[in-house]
Amino acid sequence: MAKALIIIGVALVVAGVMLHFGLFKHIPLGRLPGDIRIEGKNGSFYFPIVTCLIVSFILSILVRMFK
Questions:
Q1: Domain total for the chain?
Q2: Backbone CA torsion sign across 24, 3, 62, 49
Q3: For residue 23, what are the domain limits?
Q4: 8 to each of 11, 16, 31, 53, how far by Cα in Å?
Q5: pLDDT, position 31
Q6: What gap in Å lies between CA 21 and CA 1, rounded to an integer?
Q7: What share of the chain is helix, strand, coil (3-state, %, to 5)?
Q8: Model pLDDT for residues 7-55, shown as the tens digit of each residue
């Protein structure tokens, strides 16, 4: 369990550094076709459902690889 937490922590740090330096700019996560955006005059609602599905799929593959 400890080894898995260390690997996850390192992966999060690497992803954070990549986000900080803009290495994910060409990947439009959060703005994909199928993400739900409803804007009204009193407010807005945004739910990135396709982005969530893609991230879930990638994380599932990574978990299966390290299992």
A1: 1
A2: negative
A3: 2-66
A4: 5, 12, 26, 19
A5: 80
A6: 31
A7: 55, 10, 35
A8: 888 888 988 888 788 776 777 777 888 889 999 999 999 999 998 998 8
